[in-house]
Amino acid sequence: EYEGDRNSEGQRHGFGKALLPNGDTYEGEYEFGLRTGTGTYRFKNGALYTGNYLQNKKHGKGVFFYPDGSKYAGDWVHDQRQGYGEYLYANGDTYTGEWANNKRHGQGTYVYKDTGSKYVGCWVNGIQDGPAELIHQNYRFKGRFLNGKPLGRGKFIFDIGCEQHGEYMQQPVQEKEEEDEEEPPLPLEPKWNASDITKLTPWSPHVTEEDEGHEPSSEVLNPPSDAEGEGEGGREEEVNEDQEDKGEK
Which CATH number is correct for 1-83, 3.40.50.1100, 2.30.30.140, 2.20.110.10, 2.40.160.20? Predict the structure, then answer.
């Protein structure tokens, strides 16, 4: 069902309201029979999108409310979260930063609601990867991440005015007996090897000549639990946005 403007050829053109066969509704602008311009699309399952469209696809600025209570507000390109935007997750965590192909990609900040900690740095295809800073209540870690885990040289900076230098090292995988070969090995967390404690100093993610002179000691500082992953408390609630009827006439 459609109620609204049409052009001389009978196509939906201008402002209109539509009830789709699957129970979804759309109210907004059309051009030559396609959703183009600003509009609001309500899904039968409770999801809602309001923002810009281009030829039936979410394109430009828009806000998507998901059925689980999460929300994305930001840029869209051909139905994909792409550009800059903020995602409020169902568990209260937030991500603000760059997106590509529906995933966190580029520079961004992820805030963990339960602890107040936040990750500020690089992302690759939704995973923490590259130079970053993990900020906690009384201290922070600066270093590099790889596949969501800290790895390589870095330092912990404490609010009392000192910092601990060191390196996260990948633990060697232990060989298993033949009868256990069918069981997959458990993932090993990178191990923190501390070298020394100094006053506050400038930091770079790259190894410096001073760093090369540091010999790791036997002291071990366990990594903060929040460094182990994104801690989102569950996967994002994805809606089958393809429900939007691209065959409106």
Answer: 2.20.110.10
